[in-house]
C-alpha cells in the first residue's frame, strides 16, 4: 500500500513541523500546517465549526502530510489517514528546541503564517501565561500519555503508527520513506 495521507504529531517543540515538511517534500505530497489553519489574523481563535470546516477542506484530497495535534480533531483527521508519525523526543530536547525557536522568532519578528500579522514577542514567549515554552512544559506528559493510548485504541486500528524517539530514528525513517 502506498502511503499518501500522513499526520505528524508531537509535543510543541518536538520537531514535528520539520519532520512533516521534509516528508512532504521527499514524498511530493502537499504540506498542511494545522496552526496555519487554526490561527487567524491578530491571533483570532476560530470556533470549532470554523476550524473543522477549514481542516476538512485542506485534507479533502488524497495526498497530504498534516502537521499538528489538536486532539479534538482526531476523529476528523484520522478518518482517512494511513500513517501517524509521532515525534516523541525527550523532554529536555523538546524544551531546548521550543526555547530556541521562541528566541529566534522573538528576535526576527517573522510573521508566523502569511497574512495573519501574528508574530511572537519576547513578552509573549517568556513572560505570558500564553507562552509556548510554558505550554510545552505543562503539556509534555499529558500529550505523550494521550498518544500512547491512541496507539492501542480500537477506533484507530486502521492507522499505522510510527514513534520516533531520537534524531537518528527520524533520520533513518525519513530516508526509508524517501525510497
UniProtKB/TrEMBL annotation:
Gene3D superfamilies for this protein: P-loop containing nucleotide triphosphate hydrolases
Protein name listed in UniProt: Adenylate kinase
Species this protein is from: Rubritalea halochordaticola
Amino acid at each position: 500500500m502506498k502511503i499518501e495521507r500522513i499526520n505528524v504529531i508531537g509535543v510543541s517543540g518536538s520537531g514535528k513541523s520539520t519532520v512533516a515538511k521534509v516528508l512532504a517534500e521527499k514524498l511530493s505530497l502537499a504540506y498542511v500546517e494545522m496552526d496555519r489553519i487554526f490561527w487567524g489574523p491578530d491571533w483570532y481563535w476560530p470556533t470549532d465549526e470554523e476550524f473543522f470546516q477549514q481542516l476538512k477542506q485542506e485534507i479533502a484530497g488524497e495526498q497530504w502530510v498534516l502537521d499538528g495535534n489538536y486532539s479534538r480533531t482526531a476523529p476528523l483527521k484520522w478518518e482517512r489517514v494511513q500513517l501517524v508519525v509521532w515525534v516523541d523526543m525527550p523532554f529536555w530536547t523538546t524544551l531546548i528546541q521550543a526555547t530556541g525557536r521562541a528566541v529566534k522568532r522573538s528576535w526576527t519578528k517573522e510573521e508566523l503564517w502569511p497574512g495573519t500579522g501574528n508574530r511572537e514577542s519576547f513578552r509573549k514567549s517568556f513572560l505570558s501565561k500564553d507562552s509556548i515554552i510554558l505550554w510545552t512544559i505543562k503539556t509534555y506528559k499529558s500529550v505523550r500519555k494521550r498518544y500512547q493510548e491512541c496507539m492501542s485504541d480500537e477506533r484507530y486500528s486502521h492507522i499505522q503508527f510510527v514513534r520516533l524517539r531520537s534524531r537518528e530514528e527520524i533520520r533513518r525513517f525519513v530516508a526509508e520513506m524517501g525510497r
